[in-house]
């Protein structure tokens, strides 16, 4: 509980921008997936860095947990409040502050979403490429080190964040990084905060790298006789220097669901969905060379779309796939796996996961960003059936154990939150204790997003 004095002081500072309304609390305690609702005691909507600093300093004085909130799309209960406290929702700090076109940089407030930023950039010839499927906030994306379909070409949030402004757990405001493209000046604090899931401080401003909008874009789709054949094609294409902007895998089960529930026209087989960015000539050449490789691997029905409408239809379907899969089993919720393995082992990993899911009582279509070795099984469980949830967690744990054996990670892009915490020791060993030491050094009272990422006391 937040002490009455603290609520009084926050109310005096924020007026109606402090809420203790039931629906507001419930909304900020919910996760997209299977995690139980864990609401905070209050939610606030600050308007600038100075206000965030005063809020955090006040919470520090009273020992109140502080949880950052972007758009709440993180999948592992990251922004829930297992110990109550104050959720700081950044929806009123969503401005694009400065576009530095010549430096190919932009300064934004953390609540700005990737969609809003790209709309603002449309006339500049520049774009922000990281695309996690949901229209997430850039602050939240930095905090989960998000990536998605385009990481294979443009990289993840780790590669895009040039500098940050952060409010530390005692209310101090620091800046990490500069506008310069590189620096050898000391510890890389920007890299430390990216992926910290709000456990070290609240981000109040980001300086992000931008990229040129491609002159031409084309998309392609093809069906493969097996998962192995699809993955082998991806490996060969990468070795030959082809650089698609997206290479997405969908398995036969996903293809069947897209056909039945979203008007898809896929063969019931594993597919690759691709997008190429570049000049007209480069895009045509890459698409053709990829088509040749796919044909050698026995792929059929290679369709190549240069028209914007066709491309949009394909990628809209891919972006909606998570919700389409959920809707294919009404009333279900999902345990979403997110392992990432060296690409050479990906065929094995997916096939083993597929066999284990087939032998289980629950459905689990698989799709993923195969250019990076990252894939997701969407394990659909009946909300009211603990046996199904237990089966899904067993499957998920098995996939992670296998990924770790292969030299991979428990989470390629979704992050730790509550759902992946129990894998941290196995993945990092003694390095996890180092993360705990860093947390204690920056947040000795443990008020920032408690219960997440580091060993709990
Ligand atoms: C349909 C669907 C598809 C998805 N696909 C992908 C995908 O392909 N790739 C991918 O990477 N993710 C994916 N995600 C997950 C999600 O979109 C990402 O994790 C995203 O980065 C979360 O952003 P958000 O703004 O919703 O953050 P939130 O969920 O609000 O917060 C995420 C974390 O960041 C913290 N936080 C938020 N803002 C701040 C701040 N300003 N300062 C400090 N801490 C803060 C929160 O406390 C929390 O720990 C998907 C989600 C959905 C629903």
UniProtKB/TrEMBL annotation:
One of its GO terms (biological process) is lactate catabolic process. Its EC number is 1.1.2.4. InterPro entries: FAD-bd_oxidored_4_C, FAD-bd_PCMH, FAD-bd_PCMH-like_sf, FAD-bd_PCMH_sub2, FAD-linked_Oxase-like_C, Oxid_FAD_bind_N, Vanillyl_alc_oxidase_C-sub2. GO terms for molecular function: D-lactate dehydrogenase (cytochrome) activity; D-lactate dehydrogenase (NAD+) activity; FAD binding. Pfam families: FAD-oxidase_C, FAD_binding_4. Residues 36-213 form the FAD-binding PCMH-type domain. It comes from the Bacteria. Its cofactor is FAD. PROSITE patterns: FAD_PCMH. Keywords: FAD, Flavoprotein, Oxidoreductase, Transit peptide. It is an enzyme of class 1 (oxidoreductase). Belongs to the FAD-binding oxidoreductase/transferase type 4 family. This is D-lactate dehydrogenase (cytochrome). The lineage of its organism: Bacteria, Pseudomonadati, Pseudomonadota, Alphaproteobacteria, Rhodobacterales.
């Amino acid at each position: 509980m937040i002490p009455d004095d603290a609520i009084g002081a926050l109310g005096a500072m924020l007026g109606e921008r402090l809420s203790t309304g039931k629906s507001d609390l419930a909304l900020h305690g919910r996760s997209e997936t299977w995690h139980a609702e864990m609401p905070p005691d209050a939610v606030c909507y600050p308007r600038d860095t100075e206000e965030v600093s005063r809020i955090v300093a006040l919470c520090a004085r009273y020992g109140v947990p502080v949880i950052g909130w972007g758009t709440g799309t993180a999948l592992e209960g990251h922004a829930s409040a297992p110990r109550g406290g104050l959720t700081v929702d950044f929806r009123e700090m969503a401005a694009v502050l400065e576009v530095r076109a010549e430096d190919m940089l932009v300064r934004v407030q953390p609540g700005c979403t990737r969609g809003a930023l790209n709309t603002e950039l449309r006339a500049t010839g520049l774009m922000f490429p990281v695309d996690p499927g949901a229209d997430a906030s850039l602050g939240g994306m930095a905090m989960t080190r998000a990536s998605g379909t385009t990481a294979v070409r443009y990289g993840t949030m780790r590669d895009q964040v040039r500098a940050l402004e952060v409010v530390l757990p005692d209310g101090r405001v620091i800046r990490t990084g500069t506008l310069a493209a590189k620096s050898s000046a000391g510890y890389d604090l920007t890299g430390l905060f990216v992926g910290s899931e709000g456990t070290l401080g609240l981000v109040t401003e980001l300086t992000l790298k931008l990229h040129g909008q491609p002159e031409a874009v084309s998309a392609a789709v093809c069906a493969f006789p097996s998962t192995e054949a699809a993955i082998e094609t991806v490996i060969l294409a990468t070795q030959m220097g082809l650089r698609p902007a997206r290479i997405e895998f969908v398995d036969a089960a996903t293809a069947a669901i897209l056909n039945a529930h979203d008007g898809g026209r896929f063969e019931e087989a594993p597919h690759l969905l691709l997008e190429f960015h570049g000049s007209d000539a480069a895009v045509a050449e890459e698409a053709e060379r990829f088509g040749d490789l796919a044909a050698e691997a026995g792929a059929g029905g290679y369709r190549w779309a240069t028209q914007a409408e066709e491309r949009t239809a394909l990628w809209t379907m891919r972006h909606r796939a998570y919700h389409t899969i959920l809707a294919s089993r009404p009333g279900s919720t999902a345990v979403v796996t997110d392992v990432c393995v060296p690409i050479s082992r990906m065929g094995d990993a997916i096939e083993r996961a597929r066999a284990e899911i087939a032998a289980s009582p629950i459905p689990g279509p698989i799709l993923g960003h195969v250019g990076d070795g990252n894939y997701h099984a969407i394990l659909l469980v009946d909300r009211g059936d603990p046996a199904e949830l237990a089966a899904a967690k067993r499957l998920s744990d098995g996939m992670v154990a296998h990924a770790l054996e292969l030299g991979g990670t428990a989470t390629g892009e979704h992050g730790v939150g509550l759902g992946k915490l129990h894998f941290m020791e196995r993945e990092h060993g003694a390095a996890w204790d180092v993360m705990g030491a860093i947390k204690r050094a920056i947040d000795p009272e443990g008020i920032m997003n408690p219960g997440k990422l580091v060993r709990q006391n």
